[in-house]
Amino acid sequence: MRPFELTAPASVGDALGSTGTFLAGGTTLVDLMKLDVLTPRHVLDINGLPLHGIDTAEGLRIGALERMADIAAHPGVYPVISRALLLSASQQLRTMASIGGNLMQRTRCTYFRDVSMPCNRRDPGSGCPAISGANRMHAVLGTSESCVATHASDVAVAFVALDAEIRLTGPDGERTVKLADFYRTPGGTPEVEHDLRPGELITEVIVPRLDWAARSTYVKVRDRQSYEFALCSAAVAVDVRDGIVADARVAAGGVGTVPWRLSAVEAALRGKPATEESFAAAAALAVEDAQPLTENAFKLTLLPRTIVRALLEVTEGSR
């Protein structure tokens, strides 16, 4: 790790407009600094800022510095969010990691994290060896000739499924952005991963009220039972009335360069019986635009099966 200056701004205003790198839980930043993937000269410890609180009075509002473990355990948090958080990491990391930091975490692509290798996200124009190299863990949706790295966050998938927004505060004031619009697919500029402007800070996550999201879940398929990133995951919420799907929200993780909302699957579920056959027919649409690589074509089978598993789990007792 290279030398850096550490300061602690006393207020949000003091932090805004800074050219430094924000530090909250540090569970991603410190790792990348140790690997020399990130080499900030100035780090701002923002843990003292008043960006805490969980409010479930009308929808869900979460301060950006709330820890993942506290959110998962909070009464009134939708099950899909709580489960995504509990499946995200070890208890130690969930106790340290902030929700804002989780949404900003970088990809776990091994080429990105190895500074001896080329990587267009880390060094634009240097190439993407994952396209023809070891790519079993990589994306099949939202990829480009420049990058095929998956997005790492579990809870971001749940938030995208529920139309969550984030409040951003910067030198020019506040703005609110849908999380699905905040993330950027790589295209020809994979180094541009999100819509965070210079000096801006995530201050709050806002999830609209959705009463039937009480019937929701998050299913994560991975190589081992704990402390592992997703090969494939599905966040679902379903409104079933008299055995018919009235509405649904579905998003996928582990397969996209960003958390991937599956609007075609949702549309195919609406008005259909809440049966395994209907679920399978809808879930098949999830991979219509997929572009598999040499080692990850299995995700084209795994993703629909994961969606069906999640739908069956969340509708048990209502079919």
Automatic annotation (TrEMBL):
InterPro entries: CO_DH_flav_C, CO_DH_flav_C_dom_sf, Diverse_Substr_Oxidored, FAD-bd_PCMH, FAD-bd_PCMH-like_sf, FAD-bd_PCMH_sub1, FAD-bd_PCMH_sub2, Mopterin_DH_FAD-bd. Pfam families: CO_deh_flav_C (PF03450), FAD_binding_5 (PF00941). It comes from the Bacteria. Residues 1-212 form the FAD-binding PCMH-type domain. Its EC number is 1.17.1.4. SUPFAM superfamilies: CO dehydrogenase flavoprotein C-terminal domain-like, FAD-binding/transporter-associated domain-like. Keywords: Oxidoreductase. GO terms for molecular function: FAD binding; xanthine dehydrogenase activity. This is Xanthine dehydrogenase YagS FAD-binding subunit.
